[in-house]
Amino acid sequence: MDKYIISGGRRLEGSVGIQTAKNAVLPILAAAVLTDEPVRVLNVPDITDVRNMVKILACLGCGAEYVGNDIIVNGSTADSCEIPRALAHELRSSVFLLGSVISRFRRAKIAYPGGCDIGLRPVDLHLAGLKRLGVGITESNGYILCECDRLTGNEIMLDCPSVGATENIMLAAVKAEGVTVIKNAAREPEIEDVQNFLNALGARVRGAGSGTIRIDGVKKLGGAEYQPIADRIEAGTFAIAVAMCGGEAELVGANAENISSLLHKLRENGCKLRVKNDRIFIRSDRRPVAVKSVETQPYPGFPTDLQAQMTALCTVCSGNSIVTENLFETRFKYVPELRRMGADITVVDRSAFVRGVERLRGATTVAHDLRGGAALVVAALAAEGESEVLGIEHIDRGYAAFEYKLAGLGAKIKRVGI
Ligand code: EPZ
User: Fold this and answer.
1) What does pTM read for this prediction?
2) What is the mean pLDDT of residues 169-186?
3) Closest Cα to atom 43, ligand 1: which residue?
4) Cα(228)–Cα(329) distance, integer angstroms
5) Is the pLDDT of residue 115 over 70?
6) Strand partners, 99
7) pLDDT at residue 234, rounded to an integer
8) Among 69, 212, 238, 287, which has the highest number of CB atoms less than 10 A from its own CB?
9) Of ligand 1's atoms, which has the minimum distance to the CA of residue 299?
10) In terms of C-beta density within 10 A (0-12 exposed, 13-18 middle, 19 or more buried), how is residue 308 classed?
11) What is the pLDDT of residue 221?
């Protein structure tokens, strides 16, 4: 268990490289189970969620190992279709394995997935989609048991554009007999990345990024070396940190298009932004101006994974803002921690009403989930005085070398054991 000690009130300046996207790497690693050929995923961030996914792959009997910054997966040795509770509970993405394990073994037994405690996070859409492909599903004693004689393509209409359900169905359908069409599919950039990876293996997937994805089943998949996209949430987190602390930074390897909803808000805040190829330049040289409202929506709307960080920024803007979380039921757990730093925030149902204050003051806060933890770090960097952030194991799930990257921008932050 570690904590951060942060001396706030310093401008952030310099250049920071953006990691490969956690939420692309995880489904891609799950998809590697679909083929007997070796898969090499390039420049994978060294974060806890990825390490746990590698453990799950090994538990299925797949060869899965880090080679430098890459991960090589050999699905040919897979010999188990069961994911034990301890591992499944570690991360939400364990549920993605349902689709690929069923495709390989026609059976799967997985405990209910874990992940950030940000809401109910049911898997009903995942299971309904798999049933449409011919999978029989029973749930008992905290496990989901799946069986089928074969997987048969079908049309699936998602009640809501669930990222995980879209990805799970894609993985189950790529080797099904016939055509699968997913309607009201999630449109996140990570979905398009999973499509591109599957097609690199020889699958026939089209339409990702639109609301309708068509998958023509194929008999066999090959291997591939693949570089997933940049992590738009990490890039957004650093952009918000600069906006909140003041300064000027270059985000290298970022895709501005994938966070255009955030960049639009930061311009409203008064930040100067320039984009050149895979670099985003952001400058903030005065107290940010409040944006009236932020509403999280499925892509391309404002990302729920930047909601906490954006709310932290709102706390020091001139003026008032309303931040509404439309995707998850309890994604404001970080608010009492920000109030400890002097933030003026009131949460009513799914909205946080924020009255901007001149400055936050350093305090000891506790992270309860990944993105809420990142928001507390960003707030501490901007606050007057010294802060401690506990529970940073949540942050380690999704941000590789977070303190090193921030220190590279001039932040005074260090990790200490407790
Ligand atoms: C993915 O989670 C991401 N995780 C989340 O990022 C992200 O917040 C979320 O998509 C939304 O963009 C990964 O990709 C590993 P959903 P997922 O299914 O797939 C409801 C982070 O911080 N729903 O799109 O679990 C659900 O309750 C993490 O990196 C059902 O009702 O999200 C939620 O209200 C946090 N039934 C909404 O859909 C289902 O079967 C969106 O969830 C599935 C979902």
Assistant:
1) 0.97
2) 98
3) 123
4) 30
5) no
6) none
7) 98
8) 238
9) 12
10) buried
11) 98
